[in-house]
Every structure is written in C-alpha cells, then in structure tokens.
Amino acid sequence: MARLQPTPSLARRLTRSHARARRRSPYLQGVAVATLLPVVLLLARVRVRGREHLPGSGGFVLAPNHPSVLDGVFAALAVLPRRISFMGMAELWRRPLPAWVMSRIGAFPVVRGTWDADAFTTAATVLRRGRVLVMFPEGGVSPPGGYKPARAGIGHLAHTTGAVVVPVHLDGPRRLYRPWTWPRVTVTVGPPITVEEDPDPSRERSLETARRILTAVAALDPGVAEHRAG
Question: pLDDT digit string (tens) for 150-162?
C-alpha cells in the first residue's frame, strides 16, 4: 500500500484534528447517533448483549470485529450514552468539509501503510482522559465469514497505556448491504481483558496480545456459542 503524501494543507488539517481529539469530546457525535439510530432500528433488529461487562467509568479500548463499513455505528450503540473516539484513514481529511465532520464525530486520522506515531499518541491521550476508544484488531474490513489477521497496533496500545480492552463481536451488519431484508444484528460484549503495562513492548509481544484479543472477539460469535451450548 502506497503511503499517503500529505500536502501542506492536508498536513495542517491532520495536525488540527489530532489536537482537537486530544483536547475535546466529539460533540457532534450525539447528534449523529440520534439521527442515525432511528434509521438503523428501522432497517435492522438490533440486540446488544453483555453490556454488564462494560467498565462503569474511565478509559478503555472497545475491540470489535469488522464485518462491514457500518460497524462504527454499532460500536457507538454498544456503549451509549458514552461517546467513542476512533481512527479514520487520513485520506478522508483531504477535503475541508469531510475533515471538519470527521473530527467532530469522534474520528482522528491515521496514515495507513506506516507506523503513525501521531495516531498512537492521540489514541493514548484519549484513553488517559477517560474516554472510550474503538479500535478494530483486524485493522480493516474482514472477508465474508472470516477474519483478517490481527494487527500489532491494538496490542501495542494496550501495553503502553495499560488500558482495559473489551472484546465485542458484531454479527449481522453485513446483511444490511441487502435492502429490505430487516436482518438481525447482534452486538455481544465480552469480559474485559487486562494486559501488563509495558512502555516499550516488542512487536512480537504486541502481536501476541493482539491475537489474544481477536481470539476473544471470535469466541463471542453467537453461532459458535449456540453450537457449544447445544
């Protein structure tokens, strides 16, 4: 994947977005969720299970699988009334209006194809300020019926911040690609995962932890759980 080469104007937008995410809560997210939630509930039968596993306060990482481009909506739904912060590909900041919107609904940019130190600094700051960070262990949308390999980033962040990681399994969002089917979408929240804080974890250790997190996510698959119960 070719690395994004920011122009001076794009670089300024990225810098401003990181500064905003580190200082402020995403005020426009509440409006976006209030607008989208009735639409989502009209299009799908949504069930959230395991909310008792969510920490009552403080910052933590919410780690869902990534079956569709709609997953951020269901991640936000799982932690209501709290707001979420999340990474978005830096290409979305190329134009001023999308950049303005993304920064105010809780997103901050990450340059793909490289280890983006600014993105990880922002993510760590969000957690230390007691907010919820959504981070997909796979790093991108997974193939139908499966998972991409875990990426080391979520493990690195968990170790360097000492933040609790809450695995979440999303079952059904991809079915919304087929209109007029009114599919069932199940959001299953699992028990929190704690890792040892380490200011400078090796890549191997970070990757091992990321794989552990993704394994915990996959174990929440409702189909797997029902099969085991049977």
Answer: 999 999 999 999 9
17 half-sphere exposure, CB direction, 13 A CA radius = 36
Distance CA 202, CA 200 (A): 7
CB atoms within 10 A of CB 28: 15
Which DSSP helix (H) or strand (E) runs through 60? strand 60-64
User: Which residues are CB-contacts of 110 (< 8 A; sequence separation ≥ 6)?
Assistant: 87, 88, 89, 90, 116, 119
Neighbouring residues of 13: CB distance < 8 A, sequence distance ≥ 6: 93, 96, 99
Instruction: Give the pLDDT confidence score for residue 63 in this predicted structure.
Output: 98
191 CB neighbour count, 10 Å cutoff = 11
Alpha-carbon torsion 9, 103, 134, 39, what sign?
negative
What tens digit of pLDDT does each residue of 145-198 get?
A: 889 999 999 999 999 999 999 999 999 999 888 888 889 999 999 999 999 999
Among residues 48, 97, 54, 110, which one has the least CA distance to residue 74? 48
Cβ contacts of 90 within 8 Å, gap of 6 or more: 4, 6, 10, 14, 109, 110, 111, 112, 116
Q: Choose among 138, 78, 134: nearest CA to 107.
A: 134
The predicted model scores a pTM of: 0.91
